[in-house]
Amino acid sequence: MLKKVLSLCLAIVMVVALCVGFAGCKSKGISKADFKLGVILLHDESSTYDLNFINAVKDAQKSLGLSDEQVIIKKGVPEGNECYEAAKDLVAEGCNVIFADSFGHETYMIKAAKEFKDVQFCHATGTKAHTEKLDNYHNAFASIYEGRYLAGIAAGLKLKEMMEADSTVVPKIGYVGAFTYAEVVSGYTSFYLGVKEIVPEVTMEVQFTGSWYDETEERNAAKALISMGCVLISQHADSMGAPSACEDASVPNVSYNGSTATACPNTFIVSSRIDWAPYVEYICKQVMDGKAIDTDWTGTLKTGSVKLTDVNTKAAAADTQKIIDEYKAKLDNGTIHVFDTKNFTVDGKELTTYLADVDDMGDYVGDTEVIKDGYFHESEYRSAPYFDLEIDGIHRINTKF
Amino acid sequence: MAATTKHSGAVKEPLIHITRRSSMAPWKGILIRAAAVVIAFLLSSVLAYLLIGADPANFLKKFFEGIFGVNAMSANLRLWKLAKDTAILLLIGLALTPAFRMRFWNIGAEGQVLISALAAVAVVIYLGDKIPKEYNWLLLLLMLVASLIAGVIWAVIPAIFKALWNANETLFTLMMNYVATYFVAYCLVKWTPDGSSVLGELPKGHLPELGNSYVLLILVTLASTVFMFVYLYYSQPGYEISVVGESQRTARYIGVNVKKVIVRTMVLSGVLCGLAGFMMVAALDHSVTVTSVGGRGFTAIIVAWLAKFNPFIMILTALLLAFLNQGAGQIATKFGVSFAFPNVVIGIVLFFVIGCEFFIRYKLHFRKRTPAADADNGKGGASL
User: Fold this and answer.
1) Is A84 domain-assigned?
2) Which end of chain A is less crowded, N or C, counting CB atoms within 10 A of the terminal residue's CB?
């Protein structure tokens, strides 16, 4: 009997020791030499969106000192079963972290994450990490609405300059958006609020294209807005369609994803973009150190994730950079908030409460109170934007595409 | 030069002249085609060296790694992927074959497959919650029926217009592709109130996995290949297709109802495209996007054409294209070039493979320059 009890105890001790041993291994992390990063991209360099990710991965690779063999980038991966295949293939190649860049990759990344528990899966712009509750699946985004707001300030200064030079100029601006999705709504609303900060009477027309990348549609949308009397254009879509239409028509343009100054030297004012390099560095370091990655990670101006390009002094109003820096400081220290409820109205009323659809369970019903302390708390309850209000002053031309 | 001065009175023979070959041993034809693939392949490696500085040995190594993997796990994944990609291309190619044999230029497989995929997804969206989980087979059956109907509708509309009013089927089927694409875009807007137009993977309507999710697709494709071979070569409708393809007048003369054959054949095309669309949704993607078919409806045209519309040879041509795509895809990943690179390699190979048909059908004769050969002139000279 004693023997049996003893052997049982011994067995338990051994199992526990084994578990502790494995757990120990896990928290030890991975040496830099054994580390591999896999990246899944929807398109390639020809899309400004994917180019932004490629540059970020290269920057992170450089600063971490990883070799080319340690970073595998798969380009042109569609938002279907191929994404799951690509993720598995990267696991087979020995990747410890796999990062995907397109919204539609998400469910396939989750499928791979459930299958390969030892590998970390990170997804930009996704919405499901906080409800899936997997240890190895994570979402990330950035408070790009702050960048858009600052770009809006630059646009407002330009608009003000145009109105002062010519009293007949009507303060109406245009925006080319991809979809009526919260990411786009949050983007154009913050841009508009930036312009409104400088020119309070401004109105904005938004034309949607129904595609993230459609050069012809984006160009046509910009042209249509210009012919409607919009005197300044900005966009949230990934081709050169809108900026080049503005250059042709000599209409000032505020860009996105990166500078378009080379192609549009006379009309490009400034561009905001998300710099993904800090996030890529972060996930690599966490895995090497054996630390957990945040379920939702939101980059900010402070983390260096939200960036503005240099102001093109040829097109921008005087002192633009100086005034941008002033507003940036105010955002940094929290004295102003982009979505301050005093700055906008919905159907003529100031908002005191709003339930946003944060949990993304497919019900499309609001579930989380996001207005507190006098402002809309964007990108706090999950990293991806959820501001989807239609505020006064912005007119959406086509929501059915 | 010496030759012309010597026989100054004779008619000047051109440097090269071409004659049609009466016949060629099959093994020679196979050898020429294999040589074309090999030469194209070597040229691709030279191009890769010039463009991206990949040395040829490394090019070949990485290319084959793309298919055979770097370790046991990736070998397993990549070989299955190759089999799956081959199966999809083959299945769509099989759908095109009967129409092509009839000289009905159906270039609408892209749209026919896409609309079928959309129909399957629509069934999941509208009925997925209404059918209990234990009746998954019923849901799958409804998806299959919806896909087949959608595929047939998309294929038969141009066929009816062709049969009744002789409308140009090439343009018509091409346009139907765009209609399908925009119809998918419209439905996605309707089905995603958040405005993202992304459905993601749907939880319902999954086909059971036999080992892995590709096996069933591969089996369905193989069965379709055998069926199509028998249908085309050993059935009356298959024979009628061939006759209509050779000459519509002859067909009419021997009492074939040409209009009926056109419509019947395109219904068959639509059914197979419907099957492909259903398999893509139920076995692989469990979702639909505007790029779900991703150009495979057009690549399948090459699959069918290279095989001269023989279903069994199409297994090889589909395999060749999937093989090139996967190997060159690995090159693009490993050397950090655009994912358009696989298309460049495929383009070079196709150029050579299609080009070599010329040498299989025709013989080149070069004028001989030596006096000894001149005496021999008229007997043929050097040939290739």
Assistant:
1) yes
2) N
Whether residues A388 and B332 touch (CB distance < 8 A) is answered with: no
**Is position A6 within any domain?**
no
The answer to whether the Cβ–Cβ distance between B201 and A111 falls below 8 Å is yes
- Interface predicted TM-score of the whole assembly (ipTM), two decimals: 0.87
Question: Rounded distance, CA A112 to CA A98, Å?
Answer: 10
In a domain, B59, yes or no: no
What residues in A contact B194, CB-CB < 8 Å?
181-182, 357, 360, 364, 388
Residue A260 sits in the same domain as residue A315? yes
Angstrom distances, CA of residue A99 to CA of A69, A134, A274: 16, 15, 16
pLDDT in tens, chain B (384 residues): 444 444 555 667 788 888 888 778 888 888 998 999 999 988 988 888 888 888 888 888 999 999 999 999 999 999 999 999 999 999 999 999 999 999 999 999 999 999 999 999 999 999 999 999 999 999 999 999 999 999 999 999 999 999 999 999 999 999 999 999 999 999 999 999 888 899 999 999 999 998 889 999 999 999 999 999 999 999 999 999 999 999 999 999 999 999 999 999 999 999 999 999 999 999 999 999 999 999 999 999 999 999 999 999 999 999 999 999 999 899 889 888 887 888 888 899 989 988 998 888 888 888 776 655 455 554 444 444
* A94/A243 same-domain check: no
Q: Are residues A257 and A294 in the same domain?
A: no
- Which residue range is the domain that position A69 belongs to? 33-143+277-299
CATH assignment of the domain containing A76: 3.40.50.2300
- My answer on whether A252 and A149 are in the same domain is yes
B194/A388 CB distance under 8 A: yes
Q: Which residues are CB-neighbours of B243 under 8 A, at least 6 positions away?
A: B250, B251, B254, B256
Question: Are A188 and A322 members of one domain?
Answer: yes
Q: Domain for residue A338, yes or no?
A: no
Does residue A324 belong to any structural domain of this protein? yes
Residue whose token pair is 């409806």: B297
- With beta carbons under 8 A apart, name residues in chain A contacting B78: 89
Burial (CB count <10 Å: 0-12, 13-18, 19+), residue B89:
buried
CA A307 to chain centre: 11
Task: Check CB contact under 8 Å for A74 and B185.
Answer: no
Q: Is B333 on the interface with A (CB under 8 A)?
A: yes
- Quote the CA–CA distance of B280 and B274 in Å, as a whole number: 10
